[in-house]
Automatic annotation (TrEMBL):
UniProt keywords, alphabetically: Signal
Highest rank taxon of the organism: Bacteria
Signal peptide coordinates: 1-18
Taxonomy of the source species: Bacteria, Bacillati, Bacillota, Clostridia, Lachnospirales
Segments of skewed composition (Low complexity): 236-262
Protein name: Uncharacterized protein
Species assigned in the record: Blautia obeum
Acidic residues composition bias: residue spans: 263-277
Length: 339
């Protein structure tokens, strides 16, 4: 009997001990599961890295480089549209004396590092603070280029506002010795392309094709009323008297336009040659806006915009053209484009 009691007591103790171990085993896995969470931190880090890598400089893919990039330079992308390979490029502030000797041009910016074939590009890191031959802050610049073909004449591009230009294309109107070099450019922050061709022709004394067409048309129109008046009046004495009476009255609708065409210019049509207001205004690119207003008069209206690259930009509106301006480091308002 005592043996049975001891056996039952041993079985009871063993079952209680087994029940206690089961509780420990059930708790331990729950603690391990709670400690495994935080996988999202690494995903956020990867996203930041990708965004930083997407920001690139627009000139980074251009391999041909002139000058050294720094905080005191502005970048200008040159494009060769001369249909010839360029071997050397020179840049200097515009000179008042017109001296084009080699000493006035300084060093070749290319310096044998590359050549520019047709449509090739080069980026020029240009120092913003430069002085002209008078010791004043330069706002207008000249460009000179030579070619790999040594028999080809060098070309010049005058009075360019390079400090306000982001893209500059060197072009040729015509071919061979009769070709006229000119430039087209985009001012910083602007989408309107400016061409210097008309201004170059004016400096060379070459009449623009569009101007010659307008003048020939007006010449053909003016003589048409003359035979009508002579046919109606018969002899020369009567025709002179009737001519004076026609100028004071308007019974004949065909004669009135003829007199107005010969004496008064249409304000919507730009006059030819050097009298063209837009051509006059274009001569002041790179110079102060006040000088342009002294030559062309006050504009009909104006406004200003803050451009991300060029800063404060002004726009002045005339009857037949528009003027854009920027401000240099000294706060002077400089003409940057005319169109």
């Amino acid at each position: 009997m005592k043996k049975r009691y001891l056996i039952l007591a041993g079985i009871l103790a063993a079952s209680m001990l087994a029940a206690g171990c089961g509780k420990k085993n059930s708790v331990a896995p729950e603690q391990k599961v709670e400690a495994t969470a935080t996988p999202t931190v690494t995903e956020a880090a990867k996203t930041d890295v990708v965004e930083m890598q997407t920001s690139t400089d627009e000139t980074a893919n251009i391999k041909n480089v002139m000058g050294t990039k720094s905080e005191t330079t502005t970048s200008i992308v040159f494009t060769n549209k001369m249909n010839s390979t360029i071997s050397a490029i020179y840049v200097r502030p515009t000179r008042d004396d017109g001296d084009d000797s080699d000493e006035t041009w300084g060093s070749d910016l290319v310096n044998g590092k590359f050549t520019l074939a047709s449509n090739d590009k080069a980026v020029y890191y240009m120092e913003k603070s430069q002085k002209d031959d008078n010791g004043d802050t330069a706002t207008s610049f000249d460009v000179r280029i030579t070619f790999t073909d040594e028999e080809q004449n060098e070309c010049f591009f005058r009075q360019l506002p390079l400090l306000t230009i982001s893209q500059l294309s060197l072009c040729m109107d015509g071919e061979g010795e009769d070709g006229i070099p000119y430039a087209t450019y985009l001012a910083s922050g602007s989408t309107k392309e400016v061409s210097t061709l008309k201004d170059v022709k004016a400096r060379l004394g070459i009449e623009d094709d569009s101007d010659s067409t307008d003048s020939s048309d007006s010449t053909a129109v003016t003589p048409t009323p003359t035979p009508e008046s002579s046919d109606d009046n018969g002899d020369s004495t009567d025709s002179s008297s009737s001519g004076s009476s026609d100028s004071t009255s308007t019974p004949d609708p065909t004669s009135a336009p003829a007199s107005s065409d010969s004496s008064d210019a249409d304000p919507t049509e730009a006059p030819s040659g050097e009298d063209d207001p837009a051509s006059v205004a274009a001569r002041y690119i790179g110079r102060s806006m006040s000088e342009l207003e002294n030559a062309c008069g006050s504009p009909n209206g104006s406004d200003y915009e803050d451009e991300p690259e060029s800063g404060k930009t002004g726009y002045y509106y005339y009857d037949t053209f528009t003027v854009s301006t920027t401000f240099d480091n000294d706060g002077n308002e400089v003409v940057s484009g005319v169109w």
